[in-house]
Amino acid sequence: MHLNIPIGSDIFDANRRHANKNRKLFESHGITAINIMGAIGSGKTTLIELAIERMGERCRIGVIAGDVVADIDASRFKKYGVPTIALNTGKECHLDAHLVDHAINQLPLADLDLVFIENVGNLICPTDFELGEHNRAVIVSVSEGDDIVSKHPMIFLGSDLVIVNKVDIAEFVGADPDKMVDDARMINPGITALKTSAKAGDGTNAWIDWIEACMQDKP
Ligand code: MG
Fold it and tell me: Which of 11, 43, 169, 211 has its Cα between 20 and 30 A from that of 53?
Protein backbone atom coordinates (compact mmCIF):
# COMPACT_ATOMS: atom_id res chain seq x y z
CA MET A 1 0.00 0.00 0.00
CA HIS A 2 1.29 3.41 -0.91
CA LEU A 3 0.47 6.31 1.31
CA ASN A 4 1.22 9.76 0.02
CA ILE A 5 1.35 12.08 3.01
CA PRO A 6 2.61 15.54 2.04
CA ILE A 7 3.61 16.48 5.58
CA GLY A 8 5.95 19.28 4.54
CA SER A 9 3.47 21.17 2.37
CA ASP A 10 0.71 20.80 4.98
CA ILE A 11 2.94 22.45 7.55
CA PHE A 12 3.80 25.30 5.20
CA ASP A 13 0.15 25.79 4.14
CA ALA A 14 -1.02 25.91 7.74
CA ASN A 15 1.75 28.35 8.61
CA ARG A 16 0.89 30.59 5.65
CA ARG A 17 -2.77 30.73 6.67
CA HIS A 18 -1.76 31.67 10.19
CA ALA A 19 0.68 34.28 8.85
CA ASN A 20 -2.10 35.88 6.78
CA LYS A 21 -4.21 36.09 9.92
CA ASN A 22 -1.33 37.79 11.78
CA ARG A 23 -0.80 40.24 8.91
CA LYS A 24 -4.50 41.20 8.89
CA LEU A 25 -4.36 41.75 12.64
CA PHE A 26 -1.33 44.05 12.26
CA GLU A 27 -3.08 45.93 9.45
CA SER A 28 -6.30 46.36 11.41
CA HIS A 29 -4.19 48.41 13.84
CA GLY A 30 -2.25 50.25 11.13
CA ILE A 31 0.97 48.46 12.11
CA THR A 32 3.89 47.72 9.79
CA ALA A 33 5.67 44.47 10.72
CA ILE A 34 9.26 43.76 9.69
CA ASN A 35 10.89 40.33 9.98
CA ILE A 36 14.60 40.69 10.81
CA MET A 37 16.64 37.63 9.90
CA GLY A 38 20.35 36.79 9.96
CA ALA A 39 22.96 34.69 11.73
CA ILE A 40 23.87 35.01 15.40
CA GLY A 41 26.19 37.98 15.79
CA SER A 42 25.33 39.61 12.46
CA GLY A 43 23.89 42.70 14.17
CA LYS A 44 20.11 42.15 14.15
CA THR A 45 19.58 43.35 17.71
CA THR A 46 21.93 46.32 17.34
CA LEU A 47 20.21 47.51 14.15
CA ILE A 48 16.79 47.28 15.82
CA GLU A 49 18.15 49.22 18.83
CA LEU A 50 19.44 51.86 16.43
CA ALA A 51 15.99 52.20 14.85
CA ILE A 52 14.42 52.58 18.30
CA GLU A 53 16.96 55.31 19.16
CA ARG A 54 16.40 57.22 15.91
CA MET A 55 12.65 56.70 15.39
CA GLY A 56 11.31 56.15 18.90
CA GLU A 57 10.26 59.78 19.38
CA ARG A 58 8.00 59.94 16.35
CA CYS A 59 6.94 56.32 15.96
CA ARG A 60 5.54 53.82 18.46
CA ILE A 61 7.66 50.68 18.22
CA GLY A 62 7.18 47.17 19.62
CA VAL A 63 9.49 44.17 19.37
CA ILE A 64 9.00 40.43 19.25
CA ALA A 65 12.39 38.93 20.10
CA GLY A 66 12.92 35.31 19.07
CA ASP A 67 15.70 33.22 20.52
CA VAL A 68 16.29 29.54 21.13
CA VAL A 69 16.63 30.19 24.85
CA ALA A 70 16.88 33.14 27.28
CA ASP A 71 15.76 36.74 26.93
CA ILE A 72 19.07 38.56 26.54
CA ASP A 73 17.96 40.46 23.41
CA ALA A 74 14.50 41.18 24.84
CA SER A 75 16.05 42.83 27.89
CA ARG A 76 18.16 45.02 25.57
CA PHE A 77 14.95 46.33 23.94
CA LYS A 78 13.09 46.73 27.21
CA LYS A 79 15.76 49.22 28.35
CA TYR A 80 14.30 51.64 25.81
CA GLY A 81 10.85 51.27 27.32
CA VAL A 82 9.38 49.71 24.16
CA PRO A 83 6.84 46.89 24.53
CA THR A 84 8.83 43.69 24.00
CA ILE A 85 7.79 40.05 23.98
CA ALA A 86 10.48 37.36 24.23
CA LEU A 87 9.76 34.16 22.32
CA ASN A 88 11.86 31.09 23.04
CA THR A 89 11.71 28.42 20.36
CA GLY A 90 13.49 25.68 22.34
CA LYS A 91 14.80 23.23 19.76
CA GLU A 92 13.32 25.07 16.76
CA CYS A 93 15.69 27.12 14.61
CA HIS A 94 13.06 29.61 13.40
CA LEU A 95 9.93 31.44 14.49
CA ASP A 96 6.61 30.41 12.98
CA ALA A 97 3.31 32.23 12.57
CA HIS A 98 1.63 30.36 15.43
CA LEU A 99 4.35 31.36 17.93
CA VAL A 100 4.25 34.94 16.70
CA ASP A 101 0.47 34.98 17.13
CA HIS A 102 0.96 34.33 20.87
CA ALA A 103 3.37 37.26 21.08
CA ILE A 104 1.10 39.59 19.08
CA ASN A 105 -1.69 39.00 21.54
CA GLN A 106 0.53 40.22 24.37
CA LEU A 107 1.49 43.46 22.58
CA PRO A 108 -0.53 46.67 23.04
CA LEU A 109 -1.45 46.78 19.34
CA ALA A 110 -3.60 49.90 19.59
CA ASP A 111 -0.54 51.83 20.80
CA LEU A 112 1.93 50.73 18.09
CA ASP A 113 2.88 51.81 14.55
CA LEU A 114 5.80 49.48 13.88
CA VAL A 115 6.73 45.99 15.08
CA PHE A 116 10.13 44.40 14.58
CA ILE A 117 10.20 40.62 14.73
CA GLU A 118 13.76 39.47 15.41
CA ASN A 119 14.00 35.92 14.13
CA VAL A 120 16.20 33.13 15.49
CA GLY A 121 19.82 33.50 14.38
CA ASN A 122 20.51 31.53 11.24
CA LEU A 123 20.25 31.85 7.47
CA ILE A 124 18.34 28.68 6.58
CA CYS A 125 15.36 27.75 8.78
CA PRO A 126 13.47 31.11 8.85
CA THR A 127 13.24 31.27 5.05
CA ASP A 128 10.13 29.13 4.58
CA PHE A 129 8.11 30.48 7.50
CA GLU A 130 6.12 33.64 6.91
CA LEU A 131 5.16 35.27 10.19
CA GLY A 132 2.66 37.87 8.98
CA GLU A 133 5.32 40.46 8.24
CA HIS A 134 5.08 43.10 5.51
CA ASN A 135 8.80 43.23 4.80
CA ARG A 136 11.80 41.01 5.30
CA ALA A 137 15.32 42.20 6.05
CA VAL A 138 18.32 39.89 6.22
CA ILE A 139 21.48 41.01 7.99
CA VAL A 140 24.89 39.54 7.18
CA SER A 141 28.19 40.63 8.63
CA VAL A 142 31.55 40.67 6.88
CA SER A 143 32.92 38.50 9.70
CA GLU A 144 30.84 35.59 8.35
CA GLY A 145 33.05 35.62 5.21
CA ASP A 146 32.21 37.21 1.89
CA ASP A 147 30.90 33.92 0.44
CA ILE A 148 28.11 33.74 3.05
CA VAL A 149 25.53 35.21 0.63
CA SER A 150 26.23 32.85 -2.24
CA LYS A 151 26.08 29.88 0.18
CA HIS A 152 22.54 30.75 1.35
CA PRO A 153 20.65 31.92 -1.75
CA MET A 154 17.08 31.14 -0.61
CA ILE A 155 16.93 33.65 2.23
CA PHE A 156 18.08 36.47 -0.07
CA LEU A 157 15.62 35.43 -2.76
CA GLY A 158 12.78 35.91 -0.29
CA SER A 159 13.94 39.20 1.27
CA ASP A 160 13.29 42.87 0.48
CA LEU A 161 16.49 44.18 2.05
CA VAL A 162 20.00 42.90 2.66
CA ILE A 163 22.29 44.73 5.04
CA VAL A 164 25.99 43.96 4.87
CA ASN A 165 27.04 44.99 8.36
CA LYS A 166 30.35 45.60 10.15
CA VAL A 167 31.95 47.02 7.00
CA ASP A 168 34.41 48.89 9.26
CA ILE A 169 36.21 45.61 9.98
CA ALA A 170 36.05 44.21 6.43
CA GLU A 171 39.74 44.61 5.68
CA PHE A 172 40.74 42.99 8.99
CA VAL A 173 38.72 39.86 8.24
CA GLY A 174 39.67 39.83 4.54
CA ALA A 175 36.11 40.22 3.25
CA ASP A 176 34.85 42.27 0.30
CA PRO A 177 31.48 43.88 1.17
CA ASP A 178 30.88 44.79 -2.50
CA LYS A 179 31.08 41.11 -3.46
CA MET A 180 28.41 40.36 -0.83
CA VAL A 181 26.14 43.07 -2.26
CA ASP A 182 26.76 41.85 -5.82
CA ASP A 183 25.98 38.25 -4.82
CA ALA A 184 22.69 39.29 -3.21
CA ARG A 185 21.68 41.28 -6.31
CA MET A 186 22.61 38.37 -8.54
CA ILE A 187 20.29 36.09 -6.55
CA ASN A 188 17.51 38.69 -6.22
CA PRO A 189 17.71 41.66 -8.61
CA GLY A 190 14.83 43.36 -6.76
CA ILE A 191 16.55 43.40 -3.37
CA THR A 192 17.62 46.67 -1.73
CA ALA A 193 21.22 46.40 -0.53
CA LEU A 194 22.92 48.54 2.11
CA LYS A 195 26.37 48.51 3.63
CA THR A 196 26.51 49.58 7.27
CA SER A 197 28.57 49.72 10.37
CA ALA A 198 25.90 49.70 13.05
CA LYS A 199 28.51 50.42 15.73
CA ALA A 200 30.26 53.30 13.90
CA GLY A 201 27.06 54.62 12.33
CA ASP A 202 28.12 54.39 8.66
CA GLY A 203 25.23 53.79 6.27
CA THR A 204 22.66 53.67 9.05
CA ASN A 205 20.61 56.64 7.79
CA ALA A 206 19.69 54.50 4.78
CA TRP A 207 18.47 51.77 7.15
CA ILE A 208 16.11 54.23 8.82
CA ASP A 209 14.98 55.57 5.40
CA TRP A 210 14.20 52.01 4.29
CA ILE A 211 12.05 51.37 7.39
CA GLU A 212 10.15 54.62 6.84
CA ALA A 213 9.53 53.70 3.20
CA CYS A 214 8.12 50.33 4.36
CA MET A 215 5.72 52.14 6.66
CA GLN A 216 4.51 54.36 3.82
CA ASP A 217 4.16 51.51 1.32
CA LYS A 218 2.06 49.29 3.57
CA PRO A 219 -1.54 48.78 2.42
MG1 MG B 1 19.96 39.24 18.53
Answer: 169
